[in-house]
Amino acid sequence: MEKKAGVSFYLFLIVFVFVIMFPFLWVFLSSFKPPTELYGSQAFNWIADHPTLNNYVSVFVDYPFLNYLKNSFIIAASTTIISVLFASFAAYALARLRFRGKSVILGLTLSVTMFPQISTLSPIYIILMHLGLTNSYTGLIIPYITITLPLSIWILVTFFRKIPQELEESAKMDGATLMQTYRKIIFPLAVPGIFTTAILAFIAAWNEYLFALTINTDEAYKTVPVGISMFSGQYSVPWGEICAATVVVTVPLVILVLIFQRRIVSGLTSGSVKE
Amino acid sequence: MKAQKKLHKKSDWKAAYLLMSPALILIFVIAIYPVLQSMYFSLFDYKLNDPTKASTTRHYSLDLNRYLDNAPFLMADLKNDATKASGEPKATLTKINQQLTTIDNEIRKESGDRYNKVNDILNNYKTPSEKLSIVTISKSTAEAIQKATDQVTKQLKALNQNTKVLSNAKKDIGLASGLEDTLNKPNFIGLKHYAHFLKDSRMWAAILHTVVFTVISVAIEFVLGLAIALLINKAFFGRGLIRAAVLVPWAIPTAVSAMMWKYLYDGQSGIIAKFFEKIGLIHNMGTLLTTGDGAMFSVILTDVWKTTPYMALLLLAGLQVIPKSLYEAAAIDGANKWKQFLNITLPLLKLSILVSLLFRTLDAFRVFDLISVLTGGGPANSTETISIYAYKVMFSETDFGSGSALSVIVFICVAIISAIFVKLLGSDLLPEGSKK
């Protein structure tokens, strides 16, 4: 499959990237348009005649957008740390140790990743309501673990499996204990995998909508997805602010993805034994 | 496969379960238990906004507070009137009193010392706590109370019309007819919600929308995703950039991208709507979000744009673990690209393909965010999927009983889809190591 690409290939790539990125590009350009150019005849011009930053100012002044960002970050980061930590223990056991019932537990984990969130929503809502945890960070972290923990276990088992067993066995032969083997041999080799898992778990928690919509209805605890979806203006849909908010959420993500895509890919490949 | 392993290594089950316990406990408490609870809720007429149905109860219960404010006064009045009356009315009144006393004795027996406790509190003109005053009673007693309510009310009304024996007729008839209100009936209704939904055309329409959305979007995403994965799984300048570009739509929140596309599809200022109108795909810009077909098309297009990269990412991961040496060897043997694809890529990618199809199908089947934000299930429920329907029933109508029944239906559908894939995949679904 290693073959140098030709000119037509690059032309195709340019078109391809344009199609994927067009919505972002258009939203980015629109975010600088004043209201008069967002609606009516000028709505389809590429570049604003009178570019303005008002939409961005409005997002942070008229809407508690900064607070949404803070809430989303705290909730997603806590969820990620908890689920990746517990998942790495479980995944190590599942990938390396010998015990009965392994396939049952793997099957169970897999089926839990397939659970429709709507099927757990009403009991979780009732329980959180009784515990007084609706409209709190904990109230969202708890259900988010349902989503990210099985996912993390699943990804990590695959990663741990790709680490050559020979290294571990020679460590055992040299008399290393289970924890020593994990710390000195497995963990360093699994770092790219754990990192990838953390990114995926973070994104899953950051993007979640259904629980966030249901459990944190208070303005002070809303997350970014729910916040943006509820932007509403006095007379019409505030497209300018929506575009600006989308840009604010997307730009850091683009940067993160640009940096981390290499790590994701190296994480996906470095664990496997070169044959 | 494990049996062979056990021969040369002892089991590490203690360490294994210790390592797995936090994860397993969490999974049980916040994933498995809620699903079972949903199933349980679905068997009740459970409505949060209706005080008599705001919890799930399988038993009859009696509010002693209200009962003791009623029955003793009624019985005292009737007893009084009976001593003054004679003949047939006296016999009737005595009989009624006997009936009520029998019930009262039964209640005393079933509620134990709480009957007297509540009575004492009431005699001191205080209000007993709900916890103390609401007692579970047997079905037979509850039925006796219901029966007595009807009978006694009727008899008292008849007496009042024909004779003058009742000194407080109005009050007593009121008390008698109010007896039943001291009861809390169980809201367990068995499978009635399911029976209702099986005949509910809105439910079947929602299932149809879900299936249409799932099949079309997953099919398109798979073909495009595989093409992209094959394309970017080679060395070319700017590969990282392409990968990042492909990842971005997947990485942003679905609700945010739905909002973004809502703007692009907008009937007045949406550029995509304008573009589709220009190329003649639609008659006018409004068609996209105001007609049923237009809305379904819009939702599918957005999903394809958003999740094709995810599909590509999964397949790319599968492609990258295929050793390059295989292709080199095949090339030396004179196999062309197509042959290499058929004989090396596809067989080795089968697992990744099935797994990514499984995950995407299930994701698509439980779709919520995208549709909730982009169309809200409209126009006229034309894009309402089963999850959206369940959500609306639960949180707009606060009907947790039937909403839970719908969510259990989603669960059953998902289980069936998974079962089909598991059948196709067999034990391959579990990570390779179970066999290693």
UniProtKB/TrEMBL annotation, chain A:
Compartmental location: Cell membrane
GO biological process, one term: transmembrane transport
Location of the ABC transmembrane type-1 domain: 69-260
Keyword check for Transit peptide: no
Transmembrane segments: 7-29, 73-95, 104-128, 140-164, 185-206, 239-260
UniProt keyword annotation of DNA repair present: no
PROSITE patterns from the UniProt entry: ABC_TM1
Membrane-topology annotation of the record: Multi-pass membrane protein
InterPro entries tied to this protein: BP-dep_ABC_trans_perm, MetI-like, MetI-like_sf
Family the UniProt entry places it in: Belongs to the binding-protein-dependent transport system permease family.
Name of the protein in its database record: ABC transporter permease
From TrEMBL, chain B:
Classification via InterPro entries: MetI-like (IPR000515), MetI-like_sf (IPR035906)
Pfam families tied to this protein: BPD_transp_1
Entry's localization field: Cell membrane
SUPFAM superfamilies hit by this protein: MetI-like
Cellular component terms per the entry's GO annotation: plasma membrane
CDD domains: TM_PBP2
Membrane-spanning intervals of the chain: 15-36, 206-232, 244-264, 404-426
Membrane association type: Multi-pass membrane protein
Domain ABC transmembrane type-1: 207-421
Gene Ontology biological process terms from the UniProt entry: transmembrane transport
Keywords: Cell membrane, Membrane, Transmembrane, Transmembrane helix, Transport
Family, similarity comment: Belongs to the binding-protein-dependent transport system permease family.
Name of the protein this chain belongs to: ABC transmembrane type-1 domain-containing protein
